[in-house]
Design goal:
Blueprint: H1 3-38, H2 45-58, H3 65-83, E1 87-91, H4 97-106, E2 111-115, H5 118-126, E3 132-139, E4 143-144, H6 146-154, E5 158-166, E6 170-173, E7 182-185, H7 187-192, H8 194-200, E8 205-208, H9 212-221, E9 227-231, H10 233-238, E10 242-245, E11 255-262, E12 272-280, H11 286-296, E13 301-308, E14 316-323, H12 329-340, E15 342-352
Parallel strand pairs: 1-2, 1-3, 7-8, 7-9
Antiparallel strand pairs: 3-4, 3-11, 5-11, 6-9, 6-10, 12-14, 12-15, 13-14
Helix pairs in contact: 1-3, 2-3, 11-12
The structure holds ligand ISJ.
Subcellular location: Cytoplasm
Organism: Luteolibacter arcticus
Catalytic activity: chorismate = prephenate; prephenate + H(+) = 3-phenylpyruvate + CO2 + H2O
Length: about 350
């Protein structure tokens, strides 16, 4: 077949795809009507995950899983926008890694509201000025994002999904590499690139700022002082900076886990994760006994963090992630057992254990 013939086939297929997408949009519209009538949540992470898992399993063609997820992300984003004006609050500003995580989950068709800090994200969702919020919870190099953990203690919000995003920081500037005297970035990004900075710019002044986007802006404004920034390629593009080196983080696989918070948690999907908080009595063996509850029920605990309670000095709150859904009888049993040994247990939600 010559090029024109092949392109003719592609045009035919695109026509069919568009007709099919329009039929899908009609059905999505019907789903939206049913949800509004029955007071159901518009965003259904369990349905999205089940749909993606089914398609990936069925896939026999050339498209890799990553592409299928990206294509369907946008199809489902358009669907969400058809059902309602979905508003997503995130830790801004635009171009930040959290913004990119939010787009990875909700696509380009919904509305986004950048907010200046973590508390505002929780607050706007709790006041229903936004439907969902996106906040970072941990990084594979730097560990927990403490502020997010702390905000869950008093928040009525639940976790309904997680997002895993590979963080590939780049060096960006409007000056040649030899003229760089200072490096601007968010403390998390500077920490993720600590080894690289020591090797390549041991004498540079490190300037911590509120976000990687702000760092890019300052690098643009302080060209005369030899300023450069470390952050996302999206931030470089926003401020017209040149990317001088890509992927400079010390660990190639540097990944941040983000959470989607909303009014309700997510129904079971068959492969889920549950997050909860607990506080123990100040007695010998309390923590051991609390954790034995999970062992007794053969529940895999994938994460534990401790944070000061902020109510009494040297009193702690533990943040734990478990494999399984809180409606699974085993997880339910484990949590009931845990409650016997704790002064407080707070379930933060169960959500699909997926990321890519
Ligand atoms: C259409 C629905 O609403 C949303 C859009 C989906 C889709 O486009 O397939 C899937 C889940 C929901 O987040 C649905 O719940 O089925």
């Amino acid at each position: 077949m010559n090029l024109d013939d092949i392109r003719k086939h592609i045009d035919d297929i695109d026509g069919q795809l568009l007709d099919l997408l329009s039929s899908r949009a009609d059905l999505v519209h019907q789903v939206g009507e049913v949800k509004k009538r029955d007071g159901l949540q518009i965003y259904a992470p369990e349905r999205e995950e089940a749909l993606l898992r089914r398609l990936i399993e069925r896939n026999k063609g050339r498209l890799p899983e990553k592409s299928i997820r990206a294509i369907y992300r946008e199809i489902m984003s358009a669907a969400l926008a058809l059902e309602d004006d979905l508003k997503i609050a995130y830790l801004g500003p635009e171009g930040s890694w959290t913004h990119q995580a939010a787009i990875k989950k909700f696509g380009h068709s919904v509305d986004y509201t950048p907010l200046p800090n973590f508390s505002e994200v929780f607050d706007q969702v709790a006041r229903r000025r936004a439907d969902y919020g996106v906040v970072p919870i941990e990084n594979s190099t730097e560990g927990a994002v403490n502020h997010t953990l702390d905000l869950f203690v008093d928040s009525p919000l639940q976790i309904c999904a997680q997002i895993l995003l590979r963080i590939e920081n780049c060096l960006m500037a409007d000056v040649p590499r030899e003229q760089i005297k200072s490096l601007y970035s968010h403390p998390q990004a500077l920490a993720q690139c600590r080894g690289w900075i020591l090797k390549h710019f041991p004498k540079a002044d490190l300037v911590e700022v509120s976000s990687t986007t702000r760092a890019a802006q300052l690098a643009k404004e302080n060209v005369a002082d030899g300023a450069a920034a470390i952050g996302s390629p999206a931030a470089a593009e926003m401020y017209g900076l040149t990317v001088l080196e890509e992927s400079i983080q010390d660990r190639a696989t540097n990944t941040t886990r983000f959470l989607v918070i909303g009014e309700k948690t997510c129904p079971p999907t068959g492969k889920d994760r549950t997050s909860l908080l607990f506080a123990i009595h100040d007695r010998p063996g309390s923590l051991v006994r609390a954790l034995q509850a999970f062992d007794q029920f053969h529940i895999n605990m994938s994460k534990i963090e401790s944070r000061p309670s902020k109510r009494k000095d040297w009193e702690y709150i533990f943040y734990v992630d478990l494999s399984g859904h809180c409606e699974d009888p085993v997880v339910k049993g484990g949590i009931e057992e845990l409650e016997k040994h704790c002064s407080m247990v707070k379930l933060l939600g169960s959500y699909p254990d997926a990321g890519e």
